[in-house]
């Protein structure tokens, strides 16, 4: 009986030892670092003919091609406002008036003085044309000539006074300095309006000639900002203002095609054309950029100045070009390299590249159509995390922090491998 109990105790103790050993091994495995076993991953793809497009990306903002700030050129009490916010007006259209009573009286007086001056000149000319007789005839003739000269000067001044008075009366009416939509009215009937020049900001060369169409409209000067009694904005001729990095500005030229994606309408990209690129830079800190303007081809309804957008400008394009994924091209010491499958072996080969697109690269020499190029990378055995692709067009790994470094875009991976790099 005692022997049976001892045997059972040995069995139980043995089982406990096995369990404890298993638990210890599990704890060791859980807390010990995983071995850094690198494994190569690869896939191949044939060299194909395709269209390779090189683009430049930037952020942009919608703006009006024309904004006019209309101000009265003479001070006075506002007697009428003939438009309201939202009205579409044409250049030279009447917008508002100030009290012109005093200006009208001044014009009346000036015209009366002009008539007197004209009569005086007529009288002086008649005296000059009448022959003088007697011993003082010469002096009389000279005096008559002087009277004509004086009368002519007074007539000239009276004519200038009439023109000035007429202009003052005309300035009591405010005209639209350009075509567009009334977006603001900074005043009301009965208020006193101060005088000022009407300013306009015109940012598109295609809108040239939208100055004042009426000779009596207020003077127009170029200005990038400033509020007026009435503000007019061209809501249909919208453009996109953007900034191009200094490294890309030499590639961007007027006439190039672009795609504008509005943040408010991400599913409706709008085609555009580069209309101009600034010659002088804008510097913010150590960042140098050049402003550029794009004209929208067929903008959708409902757009508003100030809306933000992303811009992709096509700066170069190669049709029917030999191309490979960007991730297949590696750069070492200024030499572009690809890995090609030859007779079941992976062989590194130097190549010449042309355009570098977002996902593909043009090959100008070193490869033939149909050859298989290899996209390879080394992934560590760690799990999770994100991988970086060294450029555009790389194919993702399955996680980790591996991948080829480069200067392009970032990619992410999940799982146990690293992302494969693209071009540097």
Automatic annotation (TrEMBL):
Residues 124-135 have a biased composition (Polar residues). Residues 136-145 have a biased composition (Low complexity). GO terms for cellular component: cell envelope. It is found in: Cell envelope. It comes from the Bacteria. Residues 124-145, 190-225, 378-424 are annotated as: Disordered. The keyword Transmembrane does not apply. Residues 382-424 have a biased composition (Gly residues). Keywords: Coiled coil. Residues 323-378 form the CzcB-like C-terminal circularly permuted SH3-like domain. The keyword Coiled coil applies. PANTHER family: BLL5650 PROTEIN, EFFLUX SYSTEM COMPONENT YKNX-RELATED. This is RND family efflux transporter MFP subunit. It comes from Amycolatopsis vancoresmycina DSM 44592.
